[in-house]
Design goal:
The complex is a heterodimer of chains A (281) and B (205). Chain A has helices at 42-49, 72-75, 93-100, 109-118, 132-143, 162-175, 190-196, 214-220, 228-233, 268-277; strands at 3-14, 17-27, 31-35, 57-62, 65-66, 78-81, 150-154, 182-186, 199-204, 207-213, 221-226, 238-244, 247-253, 264-265. Chain A has 281 residues and is of the alpha/beta class. In chain A, the strands form three sheets. A six-stranded mixed β-sheet of chain A has the order 6-7-8-3-9-10, sandwiched between helices. Chain A has a four-stranded antiparallel β-sheet with strand order 2-1-4-5, with helices on one face. A four-stranded antiparallel β-sheet of chain A has the order 12-13-11-14. Classes of the chains: A alpha/beta (281), B mainly alpha (205). At the A-B interface, helix 2 and helix 3 of A face helix 1, helix 3 and helix 4 of B.
């Protein structure tokens, strides 16, 4: 399986924050969920992929080509939803159609209006009058209307109610019916990503902690609840632990635990929380 | 480019009524007084206020990030801002030409219009790189500071050339000062365009 996006050794220094040696890829036909707490470096990474910020070192290839060398047409194959909206709020859907047909090489007005209808969005209302959910759907309609093969979505479901989130996930399922396509999606709502994603990239304090297939993560990690003494018996298996009032919970490596030791399934959220808040044994 | 200009135009459309109002009022004032001075002076504000409004909207919307992600080159994005400013100021210049024909002293009217055309270009040329570099809010203040510095520098040069009694300068041929300011305006816009493109090309969006 080849990669639609390939990031190697991405480094970017800001005042008080640094993205350090981030390496992962977005394989063709796959949805990659990009998780991490606020300020972990998700948006910086996404902006680097889109050529909005210039990393100090590392490389980013999109469709096998350096991101800086993409033609306008190739850039049109990348659909984006940026976390802060980034669409002109004084414009209506009709206005946006008139503007974007001059911006994207393969802008498809009929597809755009198709999505506008499907999402029940008004044609003549200004974007600033839209609710948060409507804006996100509108941004997604734009991203899906110019022949994109890869969607790069920064928090597209943030602030949405479960129904609106589910609608957006449905759209992404539909998009992924073509297996040449890929999605890179960042979100705080890990349950959404668990439903949708094939791979998980987890970033913490500017460093990529893990990048693996979702199912491989389920196989690799488990949660073990026991006393500290008992956890110490399996020290090699414990990745991180969290002390509680009545014992402790630990994220453990299944492969290093005897088969008869009882464990619970570790969800993506568990894995993330143990890595961020857990302590070493 | 067409898409970028169209977006800016549609973005300022809701505010356009205010500008049209000032445009008409000062046009009438100049026409009645048969002197383009009032309107030409206000045209400098048009060169700054309308593009500033459009850029302020873009900044709030985060448009630059979307446009660059969509494949618009940073150079094109910068050029579109200058072109939009030009489109904002051209109607004022055309109206000034009409006022020249209505003026009592047409030669003096031409000189006045040329002077303020140059001043408008200088103001826009200063504004753009400031906005690209520092954002709109800081640039509003910086623009005033920079224009005051330019005015002070021009005054100092005037004193150096003509002595402390600057009144002498008014004995210069009518078109010297307007042509100098206009020439400075053209050069300032050219330099500003290069600087503006450079700033946007290196800026994190």
């Amino acid at each position: 399986m080849s990669d639609n996006i390939c990031i190697k050794g991405l480094t970017k220094q800001f005042k008080g924050f640094a993205l350090q040696d981030v390496t992962f890829s977005v394989p063709r036909g796959a949805v990659v969920g990009f998780i991490g707490e606020n300020g972990a470096g998700k948006s910086t990474t996404i902006k680097s992929i889109l050529g909005l910020i210039r990393p100090e070192s590392g490389s980013i290839e999109v469709f096998g080509k350096d991101v800086g060398a993409l033609t306008k047409e190739e850039r049109g194959r990348l659909g984006t939803v940026l976390g802060d909206g980034s669409l002109p709020e004084n414009l209506t859907a009709k206005d946006m159609d008139a503007v974007l047909r001059h911006i994207f090489v393969h802008w498809d007005s009929s597809a755009f209006y198709g999505y506008i209808d499907r999402f029940s969005l008004p044609n003549d209302k200004k974007i600033k009058e839209f609710s948060r959910g409507m804006r996100q759907k509108f941004a997604l309609a734009v991203a899906l209307s110019h022949g994109a093969d890869v969607l790069v979505l920064d928090e597209p479901t943030a602030g949405l109610d479960p129904v609106a989130r589910d609608e957006i996930l449905d759209i992404l399922y539909d998009f992924m019916q073509d297996e040449r396509r890929s999605v890179l999606i960042s979100s705080h709502i890990v349950s959404d990503l668990e439903k949708l994603c094939d791979y998980i990239a987890f970033i913490h304090q500017g460093k990529l902690i893990l990048f693996d297939e979702k199912d491989a993560l389920y196989e690799k990690y488990a949660v073990m609840r026991a006393s500290l003494e008992r956890l110490r018996d399996y020290k090699d298996a414990v990745v991180a632990l969290h002390r509680g009032e009545f014992g402790a919970g630990a994220l453990v490596l299944r492969a290093k635990l005897p088969a008869d030791v009882p464990t619970e399934r570790a969800g993506i959220e568990d894995i993330m929380l143990y890595f961020v808040r857990g302590e070493k044994l | 480019m067409k898409g970028l200009l169209l977006k800016s135009w549609k973005n300022v459309l809701p505010m356009l009524a205010y500008y049209v109002f000032f445009f008409v009022v000062f046009f009438i004032v100049s026409a009645v007084n048969r002197d383009p001075l009032y309107f030409a002076a206000v045209s400098v504000a048009f060169a700054v206020a309308v593009p500033l409004a459009a850029m302020s909207r873009d900044e709030t919307d985060g448009w630059d990030a979307f446009a660059v992600a969509a494949g618009v080159s940073r150079g094109k994005l910068a050029v579109s801002r200058y072109l939009f400013s030009l489109f904002c100021i051209v109607p004022a210049w055309l109206a000034s030409v009409v006022l020249i024909f209505l003026a009592e002293d047409r030669l003096e009217a031409v000189a006045t219009v040329l002077l303020f055309m140059g001043a408008g270009m200088i103001a826009a040329a200063v504004l753009m790189p400031l906005c690209f570099r520092f954002g709109i809010e800081k640039s509003r203040v910086l623009l005033i500071v920079v224009l005051l510095l330019i005015f002070a520098a021009a005054f100092a040069v005037g004193v150096l050339l003509f002595g402390e009694d600057l009144g002498v300068s008014w004995n210069l041929p009518l078109f010297v000062l307007p042509c100098v300011v206009l020439g400075a305006g053209v050069l300032a816009v050219a330099a500003s365009l290069l600087i503006g493109i450079r700033i946007l090309q290196t800026k994190d969006l």
